[in-house]
Amino acid sequence: MLSLVLILTLSACAARGVIGIIPGATLPGAVVQPVFVATNRNPATGEDGYLFQQRFGESRDPSLRYVRLDVSIPPVHRTGQIEWPAPERPDLAKHFIVSAEHQFDGPQDFLAGLEKARPDGPREVVVFVHGYNVNNAEAVYRLAQIAHDFEAKVPVIAYSWPSAGSPRGYVYDRDSVIFSRDGLEILLTELTRDNRVLIVAHSMGSQLVMETLRQMSISGRGAVIERLSGVALISPDIDEDVFIQQSRRITPFPQPFMLLVSARDRMLDIAAFLTGKPTRLGSITEPGRLGDLPVTVIDLSDVQGGDPSGHSTAFTAPAAIALLRDLGG
Questions:
Q1: How open is the CA angle 267-247-41, to the nearest 5 degrees?
Q2: Which spans of this chain does the record mark as coiled coil (predicted)?
Q3: Less packed terminus of the chain by CB within 10 Å, N or C?
């Protein structure tokens, strides 16, 4: 209980990430990583012409907004880290900075933007679904860091759902997951018209992915699921029994389907405490507990480095990034 109180207190006092925009900024040695965003967050009101510089918070919107943000990653970038800009003094040589924002009029305009950004090669995109206690800036910059460190060769898309962005918002976020299923289904349906889609989800975002795939299967949208090139759930904050039941209703079951787990995940220990169960899905290290489900469990318990909580090891620990990059070919 003391550990829980300390973590919640420290998290509540920590400064949150913000998006810094310097239009047209360039710097030798910096790498520009385009990040496409689909969000059902409501924006804050204001007169700033750069919509995504405004605060997208926990307010829910039944419709989706689409944008591309060009994120400049500084020459001093270290694998697994986000070099956060200060709100008042972002520095292109030291920080993640957005150098351009392009807003799309709707899904068709968004798909056309993806087509223009596509390199020669497979028609594939990556959709990243963030987890609990994540604001919009954190979702965008985290995906930019992941795409850069994993050397992504295809367009990447952040599905930025309305997390409260607060350690005290766990129940609110679980409700937002339910609210956001239809938006993710719309996004996947549009993307799979001309693309294969790899889904990567973290923490509570895994619950959102599973619920969405389940409802799509039940409603006869199996053709969309067939267009998925795989699913990876990182530190999934899901009840193990619920995951098994969800999986049984998903047909066809995407392949490959990977669970990245760790027995050292302190955040999932807290989630288990809050839900009254001994473990969450992201803490299991015995694949046999999932029966005959066609899933691959990758245990990162012994990987050192990354965030101290062990909840984001897969994309913050350089050793884990190197391992998973090699596994992905």
A1: 55
A2: none
A3: C
